[in-house]
Amino acid sequence: xxxxxSSRAHWALGVAIGAVVFYxxxxxxxxxxxxxxxxxxxxxxxxxxxxSGHVPDHGIxxxxxxEAPWVAHEWLASVGFAYLYDHLGWGGVLAATSLMLALAIGxxxxxxxxxxxxxxxxxxxxxxxxxxxxxxxxxxxxxxxxLMVIWLAAHARAxxxxxxxxxxxxxVMTLWANLHGSFMFGxxxxxxxxxxxxxxxxxxxxxxxxxxxxxLFLGAAVLAAAITPQGPGGLLFPLQMMGLSAAxxxxxxxxxxxxxxNAPLYAWFFLLLFVSLLQGVRxxxxxxxxxxxxxxxxxxxxxxxxxxxxATPILLQHVIAEKLSAAPSVVSSWGAMARPAVQSAVAGIAxxxxxxxxxxxxxxxxxxxxxxxxxxxxxxxxxxxxxxxVLNAQNFGGYMIFRGYRPFIDGRVDMYGNEFMLKYTAVxxxxxxxxxxxxxxxxxxxxxxxxxxxxxxxxxxxxYADSTAVVYLRQAGASHQPxx
Length: 484
Hints:
Elements: H1 3-28, H2 30-34, H3 37-52, H4 75-116, H5 118-133, H6 140-160, H7 171-179, H8 183-199, H9 204-225, H10 237-242, H11 245-248, H12 263-279, H13 285-300, H14 305-324, H15 340-361, H16 375-383, E1 390-392, H17 397-402, H18 413-425, H19 430-436, E2 441-444, H20 449-454, E3 460-465, E4 470-474
């Protein structure tokens, strides 16, 4: 194939794989995508921003810490979710989330297909997709995934050409920093690529030149990342988050990966280990260090598995290509895809299927009952005219904000902090919390240990219960007492 035809083939394959990802997400993962308490919060925050015209800097909506400092680092994603929901409903949110994942996998396929050919590119895309599924929910991190792939692919291409990425790429960092805190991951890998360029330089002069080029780009990227409502202070937020170990420990996605909660990661890793040992793959030390960092992150926090899945093919594609150099030509052959007419047909059909899927499958989408949506319980509260401060399960905080309540706690653990979260999560502190915050009613999951304790607290009565939530009301004139 000529260079032009080859480029068209890469794009056609990327579009086709992206369309498949988009379609399968809409069909098979629609319920999972929408099942997030933070999605309710993001829609509410986005509406607030659109109505007020500025980004909040304190604990809006919180009933316990309304004046606490809060860094709304995902403000742009919140605005996007609010706009989509208010104009297109849940179907718009579902379609946008599916599209972001499709873009990430599609761009990944395009990039590695240029080095490894179609069959291996498809295999790596499927493996990467598998590591994204476990954390596939409509939240800002999904919007950042295609930016991460673009960022790393541009870095890998620049290193292959022994130069720094073009300065215009730094603009990606501005968008990324306003969408999600994972922009710090991008800056960290820029530093790692810069270190690789210096380490692998053939002479001190080349090392100094590489340091100057990459240093200039890194400086531009840092400046671009500082263009947020928080300014330079926003650069510190991801680092500050790392210090909230107690608070983050209450969030499932920050838990360590296990075979139970993240089985795809272990299947992916053992498959990679098997193939590497079988083929005797040797990885340059700098790329090996990058891979080990990604693996550690994925094992330490289950939410980072998609970073490992999407970054590894980009980082190791040339290592894989060297091992495939002796493989049969059919592995790297484009076959019928080498023909421009076939490329155009594949891309056209894929885009048509994706568009038709969006129209048909995203129409009249409703968010079904889930563990984050105690709608019937709040209906009962409203029917009884219950007012006053509430103590709620953390998983209910987003929906309560969405319904106009001021919850005791929601998903913003960074705002509430370690001390508050430790007190909230200590079940034996429940009577003291009820007393300190003058709680008038509570709402917890039936399986929540606080529910059992509430049944034995004097002065409290259970007024509503279903499979999602249990509501307790403080009896008139009753004071808080420890369980009898």
